Amino acid sequence: MSDVAETGGRRARGGGGATRRAERTAVSFETAKFIQRNIPNFEILNEEALQIIEYNAETVLEEIGVNFVENEAALVRWREAGADVRGERVHIPRGLARKLCATAPKTFTQYARNPERSVEVGGRNLVLAPVYGPPFVRDLEGGRRYATIDDFQKFVKLGYMSKWLHHSGGTVCEPTDVPVNKRHLDMLRAHMVLSDKPYMGSVTEPSRAADSVEMSKLLFGADFVDQNTVMTSLININSPMTFDGIMMGALEVYASNNQASIVSPFIVGGAMAPVTVAGTLTQVLAEILAGVSYSQLVRPGSPVIAGAFVTSIDMNSGAPTFGTPEAAHITYGTGQLVRRLGLPYRSAGSFCGSKLPDAQAAYETANSLNMGLLAGVNFMLHACGWLEGGLVSSFEKFVMDADQLGTLHHLAQGVMMDTNGQAMDAIREVGPGGHYLGCEHTQANFKTAFWRSDLLDYKPFETWAEEGARDTQTLAAERVKKMLGDYVAPALDEGIRESIDDYVARKKASMPDAFM
Amino acid sequence: MSDVAETGGRRARGGGGATRRAERTAVSFETAKFIQRNIPNFEILNEEALQIIEYNAETVLEEIGVNFVENEAALVRWREAGADVRGERVHIPRGLARKLCATAPKTFTQYARNPERSVEVGGRNLVLAPVYGPPFVRDLEGGRRYATIDDFQKFVKLGYMSKWLHHSGGTVCEPTDVPVNKRHLDMLRAHMVLSDKPYMGSVTEPSRAADSVEMSKLLFGADFVDQNTVMTSLININSPMTFDGIMMGALEVYASNNQASIVSPFIVGGAMAPVTVAGTLTQVLAEILAGVSYSQLVRPGSPVIAGAFVTSIDMNSGAPTFGTPEAAHITYGTGQLVRRLGLPYRSAGSFCGSKLPDAQAAYETANSLNMGLLAGVNFMLHACGWLEGGLVSSFEKFVMDADQLGTLHHLAQGVMMDTNGQAMDAIREVGPGGHYLGCEHTQANFKTAFWRSDLLDYKPFETWAEEGARDTQTLAAERVKKMLGDYVAPALDEGIRESIDDYVARKKASMPDAFM
């Protein structure tokens, strides 16, 4: 990628340092503020059900226990905290995990390098981040193929330019053309340089988590990172009830540096958890209690998000299924349980099993996005771009979903009940049989009254047909092309950028390539 | 259509009357019971907001009033009830409409000719009925074209065979090849003969409503129709606040025969109602209060559903938009207001503005269907098949949406909290690091645990690619073809069918064709 693209496509005429030059030439794309809900959450479980699940989850922790694998330090920490540790199995006495969770903050700020794009995680807020993890990408022209670092950079650019996306995410796709032990460096660099939204760190090795912290210090300054949270990273639990050494090692790096982790059971219902909703909720809560507690054992007060990645399974084929009613039940229920723990909550996303960004993909995704909003989710990973059960990051679906995220912002606003909202004067003015289009109240409000898609087709049939009868995927492909053509990088101090590039180059030179 | 198709494609070998012969040869397709919610409703308005809107709605009725147009009898009824009638404007004193609404039943049974398919409208139930009204149809092969009676019959057959659809609906498309003044006869005949689910009557003229009642008497018996509700028909209000003579004439026929009407404002926000949500809710409530009251003035205790058809408008083009956040706010809010009136509620549907059954259509539809379930809707018209802002009934989208309606059934079940649901034995059996697929609890529950689409693709990528890489529309087109090929009519007494055919023939012969 060229310098020109990254500093705004234009050169400053002269004077001032690198920073001022960059600031003067950069174009900024509009980003909405993270969602602050003004609507209630949907509560599917009653008090009795919640208490049963809470009781059962503590029974699981005490009686069955959880495994902390290949992690002697974790077993020591648990023993010192009062758990009954037998081999790698940690039995947590009733009440202990809940007590340990109490030191985790209810909300925290994740800072972005552009302070306007910092996010508040927790409370009634919802922060939206893009798809995470797929080894493949798909677009209309090129079809399905292994992802590369070039694809990765494109997704970061699209995320930066997406109005309703608050977060740049992490592994927006796996850059499979970069060695496994070096790709985290290129990924982090892309988020830091090509976007100014908050981002996630690497979790595939504790040393890569440490690289993420070091690179963040170059971007934000070491003191700032010591005192503030600038990364939120994804720590999956190996359900059922297993915490592996590598993931926990990454969590330890982040927690000890006061950086946030999402502690998240990864569950395909019927495989990694019981086939019933209440059973899954019990296991999810037990896993969250153990994982969040562990983050607090590492460093009390370190920021953490309680997560739940949950899908159901197609019992005919064994395939995971998405946007299903059972996943919705679990997502709603987990939200209630997590709120009772006073923790921020991560769940839902643009989940779908479809191979194409077609109607199936959209039904399943819309089911999940709507559920995520009403379930009280605070951090929604995978909020756009997910395809084919998470195997594929889709360029078209990225912009399709990112557009739909606008509906969540408007839904969350709730109903304005002031005099203008009540509109009694308009009703009086228009009267029976009249028409509101021309009335004063409509004129005064129409620009902000209704959410409007920037992508979908609202044209009359004849116009639409004349313009080529394009379906949503085709419209989206055109939008992707236009956005990538219009992309201009956010301003960044040249010195900072050089220090990041140096770090990446040095680290890469320090080790042989590994592809496994 | 041939006799063979309608009686099951096979002839009985002999013996017995027409009825027994039909019964023996008919195949019955599985239909789910109407939804009985075991989950809460989503309540977007707080008590204060509800009271403000209720107060304002009564202000509208008293101070501004509503028009009953070309309907002298209605004005007389209103005057006698205590309203202040000036010309065609009816001013309804505060409290009167609410009092009149109190005689409407909270719930009622709409009988189907197959008693297993009768539905309970109101309470915590949700009855799903197909698309209503489009002059065009679309399918993958034939594209978009004017609808015919042949199309109409195909949609009735698809509705009859759709597991998650409880109701055969009404004008599933406009059979434009049949004269305007005769098509209601063919439409009713199709619902009566080709399906055994409940149906809607004609509302385009009071005389056609009367035909609907007469034909229903042939199907159910005159006494039965006198004493029971066998039709639910759609009475739109000309918003703002205008009740026209033809629609009210049809309502009068139905109410006086104890048949149900859906009294429904038809609103494109910003055009027929204020551009703000609270203003629209106020007008919708005023219109519902006036319309439902009028049904009770005609016959106290007659069954009625309070409806709200609400979309927003694209202020750039003036086009109606669907699946939008503002429509959701209004649908949630109207649900709360209608429940406080103790009336059954009609709203939501498979709404979309897209020209194709593509991702746009599915996003918008899923937004609306999910909202409809959580808003406490009791009768969902347009629950499948709607395309292009209601101009088109889509064959593919009909089966796509009808499949998605299964998710609403499962969502509504809520979370089972019995011992089996809690699954503690399964969690104990499997333990940390184990796998639930083989465990006893999974084996015992897997068949019913998860909703499974009958249409969408859950296959691995390679299988899907080998099978032609079909998108949802293609899968749906194949399903439509298969269903219509497999269709077998429900059993019907030959004598009854002949009497219906005679009625249709006689009525058609009694008047010249009209095409306007």
Question: What does this protein look like?
Answer:
- Two copies of one chain form a homodimer.
- The model of chain A is unreliable at 1-24 (pLDDT under 50).
- In chain A, the strands form five sheets. In chain A, strands 10, 12, 13, 14, 15 and 16 form a six-stranded mixed β-sheet that branches. A four-stranded mixed β-sheet of chain A has the order 3-4-2-11.
- Chain A is of the alpha/beta class and 516 residues long.
- Chain A contains 20 helices and 19 strands.
- Chains A and B meet through α3, α11, α12, α13 and α14 of A and α3, α11, α12, α13 and α14 of B.
Care to give the gist of this entry?
Two copies of one chain form a homodimer. Chain A is an alpha/beta fold.
Spans where pLDDT lies below 50 across 5 or more residues of chain A: 1-24
Biggest chain contact:
A-B, 126 and 125 residues
Overall 3D shape of chain A:
globular
Largest sheet of chain A: 6 strands, mixed
End-to-end Cα distance of chain A, whole Å, is 27 Å
Strand residue content of chain A: 5-15%
Number of strands of chain A: 19
Counting helices, strands and paired strands, the structural category of chain A is: alpha/beta
The helix content of chain A is 40-55%
The mean pLDDT of chain A is 94
Q: Using only CA atoms, what is the Rg of chain A?
A: 24 Å
User: Given the structure, what is the number of helices of chain A?
Assistant: 20
For this structure, the quaternary state is homodimer
